[in-house]
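Would you be willing to look carefully at the protein I have copied below?

:::
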Amino acid sequence: MILLALTLSLVLEKVILISVILGASLGIAMYSTWAERKVAAIMQDRRGPNRAGPFGLFQPLADGVKLFLKEEIIPTVSSKFLFVLGPSLAMLMACMTSAVIPWGPDIPKADGGVISLQVADINIGVLFIFGVVSLGVYGIMIGGWASNNKFSLLSGLRAASQAISYELAMGISLIAMVMMTGSLSLREIVEQQHGFWQDGWFTWNFFKQPLAFIIFIVCAFAELNRAPFDLAECESELIGGYHTEYSSMKLGFYLFAEYINMFISSVILSSLFFGGYNYPFMDIVAANVSPLLVSIIGVLVLLGKAIGFILFFMFIRWTIPRFRYDQLMNLGWKSLIPLALINMLVTGAVILYFFSPK
């Protein structure tokens, strides 16, 4: 009975945690659409959303109601099952990535246990993220194929080749960091970046692997299909791209999945390179406040870093013009992959020379 009670308690904790993470991800993604318009308006010297509620804050709600109420159309010449599967798969994969992210320090319980703010602490968390991200591309490819539209098909092909090109560079860039940390667990990688300064050097991986970070964030732009890498949605050539034939909430799923992916990518960047929920002088703070408040501050720090990356993604979108497709492929194969390989070899040589047993 005691074992059953403990199991039910753990299941309840995980269900609540999953619900909170999904709710927060959907809420932040929803208001990222509002923030994107505001950022664009500021950079273009105009007002942006300002009619639906104060400062236009109800605009995402109005967009959601509009998408729900629009007519649902499935083209008669499409592959109906795949046509529905495409946006569903894109949305599902966008939400699954958050399962291995440590969102904050553990919360101690009165009975001596802890509540982990991580859904699943698996020792191959980095590989899990890459696997889920790779499957997410299938949502775009399937949607483009199932539409039976030549522009959508071309968009799906572009998305597939773009994903293959930049996932290689992204994976190789992380090999160097994994060699340095000695772990694929996101929890361990974050814990190794405790605080901000230790033993005469910064603890955050950005200061130890700056080239890996630059390669990773460029590849993240390409994986998210965001400008200047939004060749899969290039309206000047492909109308709307892979979602040209979609309407109502199927279109909403595709658009929403992009913003969820942007939020989760920002959290992953923060966790891998900028300490996750760690921050300077956190030990001094922990010694003077309650453990629950320490965990809340850690979550807020991680979210603050993620919002900073989201704004960076938006600034880049409204600053740099779109690449040509040949420039996109050349950058991936001729620049980023060689740089990632060189960084991996240099990291291996440094570890072997300075840190191997004498």
Observations:
- The mean pLDDT is 87.
